[in-house]
Design goal:
single chain, alpha/beta, 6-stranded mixed beta sheet, 32 helices, about 40% helix, about 20% strand, globular
Length: about 850
């Protein structure tokens, strides 16, 4: 009994992703082929020693079971090659009857693709590092392939080049000098393609027409671009009539998108001939006496295009295929089509949709009221033009400018422009958090007084859809929309704008369902953080702005397959997310200085902290020992972490017998407070804990320092904001991070104190940007108070990891999953 390992023809593509679909068969002595899952465990004892080693590995990777189909990493396939070295055990799926012939210790066209292990597998010390990749909770953004700088690689090489001579029937190759950067690689390549060295002339010969044409078709691109080969005049003259097969593309417009066909054309060769050559791995086609090369480099691009059009990395390489592409994918697909077919010609409607999204400088500024036109900065006019382009072409978008760049103003300008362009009054709708309803009303009244506005909130509510007829804009909150959903869902709306889009990042919530039920000509989202948590959140936003146009990540997608789909979604979403930062578009803003202040605990604080930490560890250990679910352990861990963080802020929260002096953070805060007031600065103080803010209020009252205050229970936030902005005599504003981290303009302050750190650095950055935004004329200094050797310092380390992720996210208009795992939380203890 022996094993048969059947490998995919596209191994070269699968291997770098460590996702090699492989078929396993067992052949008995009588030639019968059996599926391994049908065999009892002890039956594998009939294999020879090498077969038993390979079977043991497969059983281990499969959790004690061996199935007919497995997905292997390069490291796993390498282990099978090592175990079964020299044996006729490996086959290609398109040639399952002929075993792949070993060349010494090398399996041609297999070994070269698995010699470089993924860094994750080679560096892992885990005993289960060879097991198939699980679903990752924190996927890194996929990196684009880095092109090698060959000019630099060859800059110091002065030896003889790789020399190619021959014709379409034979090849004579002279190796370069041994100092050549790819000498060993070239030598292995020739051996794997059955070249033979002739000692007399030191040339490597291939004297077989089929193998010669196959080698030319497969390797020509590398000969020119990677190996810097020199071709003899004789060779070039004899292959001058050899042509390259063409890739043909055709586009036609349908009802909700385009139909795209992609095909390989090789002279007069039939589809059947092209398909047969492709399926057998042949890199050339002969038709009517002419040779057409199927170059590997072009086939690779074709396969990548077909995977992109089919929206799956599992799409096969086909000689002819047709795909349906929705309007939203036009910008992304156009670049891919032009890459493989420079003569690609798109329909006029295609170009109309894509050009402006690919090049913002081509956008046309829509008609605007004079006052708004004079108010908008250049980058804001581009934003309005972008929103208008999307609306006009029945597309949706996410305006995700950095905090403080005027997303609200740009949205209002769009609504004012739409009103100018039509005589029919049709209401638009803004949906925002309840705390921002008044802010929207004020901003609209200030910048677009010509818009007739109705605020649907509190006791002033619509009773039927016709109640909003005659208004240009209705402003409501997410909570109120849920209650009045049936009225709004029955109304015809011009444009729906969802502010602070993180409120609908989960499409299963009532917020998301309510706003998605509305019937509107256009849909726009505003957010300072395009995605706070995961790629799934991004999908929720995309599904809202253009429902039915996006394909999500398939259920069960893991490892590299999941990363492939994440990269696909990011690339498709990119044209519909507009994000600018202050440094780029508003250089007149003063700089923002950030400083971390580390503090040592007081003795009383340290005692309280250690007592709480040991209690937390024992409670969690007891829970785990009792067999409690992960959810229960997770909630208990969060609760205990909360207690530790509160001790860092002020141990009096856990032990009210202690004095104010027991908190090192309070002492540091009072020093900063005094220094700032003496210097004429005004301060925003953020904390997540109302209990902390309450203690600070008591301290400020005792010191007779005037202050303003906002937490989640504050009714009239704007009154407090106005009081602070209008009075230089109030130096301090105490703000709950969750209640006041968004939607406030507090440029009267130039100092920000983060009393305690939060998991997500984006939330802290948003809070700081309450002061560091347009209108600020001073340098903004942000202090972060951190208790050393505590959970706070570990949270800061976690933030450092996430900040790099978030920077990458915002630069590419995409997102990565920043959800904190249970193991991360336990490590914080």
């Amino acid at each position: 009994m022996r094993l048969r390992i059947i490998l995919p023809p596209n191994l070269e593509r699968c291997a770098p992703r460590d996702a090699i679909p492989t078929k396993i068969e067992v052949v008995q002595d009588n030639g019968a082929i059996i599926q391994p899952e049908k065999l009892a465990m002890d039956a594998f004892g009939q294999l020879d020693d090498a077969g038993r080693v390979a079977a043991f590995n497969l059983l281990q990777w499969g959790g004690g079971k061996m199935g007919s189909f497995v997905q292997l990493s390069r490291e796993q396939l390498d282990q099978l090659l090592t175990a079964l070295q020299g044996q006729p055990s490996f086959f290609w799926a398109n040639s399952p009857k002929q075993a792949i012939t070993w060349q010494g210790t090398t399996l041609p066209n297999v070994s070269p693709h698995i010699t470089q292990k993924s860094s994750s597998s080679s560096s892992s010390s885990s005993p289960t590092s060879s097991s198939p990749s699980p679903i990752t909770n924190n996927p890194e953004p996929l990196l684009e392939e880095q092109e090698e700088d060959y000019d630099k690689i060859y800059s110091d090489y002065l030896g003889n080049p790789l020399h190619i001579d021959g014709s379409t029937s034979y090849l004579a190759v002279r190796l370069p000098s041994k100092e050549h950067p790819f000498y060993n690689e070239i030598r292995e390549l020739l051996i794997s393609h059955r070249f033979k060295l002739e000692p007399k002339n030191r040339k490597w010969w291939l004297r077989d027409r089929h193998q010669t044409l196959n080698f030319i078709g497969e390797i020509w691109g590398d000969l020119e671009d990677r190996y810097y080969a020199e071709f003899s005049d004789n060779f070039l003259a004899r292959v001058k009539d050899v042509q390259e097969a063409d890739i043909k593309t055709d586009v036609s417009e349908g009802h909700n998108g385009y139909s795209i066909s992609v095909s390989i054309k090789a002279g007069q060769a039939s589809d059947q001939e092209v398909s047969q050559n492709l399926n057998t791995g042949r890199h050339y086609i002969e038709s009517e006496g002419k040779v057409y090369l199927l170059k590997k480099s072009k086939l690779k691009k074709l396969h990548e295009l077909q995977q992109s059009l089919a929206e799956t990395p599992d799409a096969p390489l086909l000689h002819r295929a047709r795909y349906s592409v929705p309007y939203v994918r036009v910008p992304q697909v156009e670049e891919e089509l032009e890459l493989i077919n420079p003569n690609f010609e798109a329909p006029a409607t295609w170009r109309q949709r894509s050009i402006a999204l690919k090049d913002l400088t081509t956008l046309v500024v829509p008609p605007l009221p004079e006052d708004i036109d004079a108010t908008l900065r250049p980058y804001q006019k581009i934003g309005v033009s972008w929103l208008h382009h999307l609306f006009k072409n029945k597309l949706g978008g996410i305006l995700a400018d950095e905090m403080g760049l005027g997303k609200t103003l740009q949205a209002i300008a769009l609504l004012a422009s739409l009103k100018l362009q039509t005589s029919r009054t049709l209401p638009s709708l803004v949906v925002c958090p309840a705390s921002l309803v008044e802010n929207w009303r004020r901003e609209t009244e200030k910048f677009a007084p010509q818009l007739k506005v109705f605020v649907n909130h509190g006791t002033s509510r619509i009773k039927k859809p016709s109640d909003i007829a005659g208004y240009d804009l209705v402003i409501t909150s997410y909570g109120t929309l849920i209650r009045d959903q049936k009225h709004f869902a029955a109304a015809d709306l011009r444009c729906v704008i969802g502010d602070e889009a993180q409120h609908i990042k989960n499409k299963r919530t009532r917020n998301a369902k309510a706003i998605s039920s509305l019937n509107a000509q256009g849909r726009i989202l505003l957010t300072g953080t395009p995605v706070e948590n995961s790629i799934d959140d991004l999908m929720s936003l995309l599904d809202y702005i253009m429902p039915g146009s996006w394909k999500g990540i398939p259920a069960g997608a893991r490892g590299d397959d999941r990363q492939w789909h994440e990269q696909r979604i990011k690339e498709q979403a990119g044209p519909y997310i507009l994000r600018r930062n202050k440094i780029t578009v508003a250089p007149e803003l003063p700089e923002k200085l950030e400083q971390v202040v580390f503090l040592e605990m007081t003795p009383e604080q340290k005692t309280t902290y250690e007592k709480a930490r040991k209690y937390a560890e024992s409670e969690i250990a007891a829970l785990e020992k009792s067999g409690a679910s992960e959810g229960t352990v997770r909630m208990k861990t969060l609760t205990q972490l909360l207690r530790l963080r509160q001790v860092c802020c002020d141990p009096r929260i856990l032990d009210d017998t202690l004095a104010p002096e027991s908190s090192s953070k309070l002492a540091s805060f009072l020093e900063l407070l005094q220094e700032s007031i003496d210097g004429g600065h005004r301060i925003l103080v953020f904390s997540q804990f109302v209990s902390v803010l309450t203690l600070l209020k008591e301290q400020l009252k005792e010191l007779e320092v005037p202050f303003c205050y906002i937490d989640g229970k504050t009714r009239n936030r704007m009154a407090e904001v106005d009081r602070f902005n209008d009075s230089d005599d109030i130096p301090v504003f105490l703000i709950s991070l969750k209640a006041g981290g968004t939607g406030l303009n507090l440029t009267a302050a130039d100092t920000v104190i983060h009393y305690d750190p939060w998991w997500n650095p984006a939330a802290e950055a948003q809070a700081t940007d309450r002061a560091h935004r347009i209108g600020q004329t001073k340098v903004v200094t942000s202090y972060k108070l951190i208790v050393a050797d505590s959970v706070e310092e570990k949270v800061l380390e976690l933030q450092g990891q996430k900040r790099k992720l978030l920077e990458d996210i915002f630069e590419a208009s995409e997102a990565a999953n920043s959800k904190i795992s249970l193991s991360d939380m336990k490590s914080l203890l």
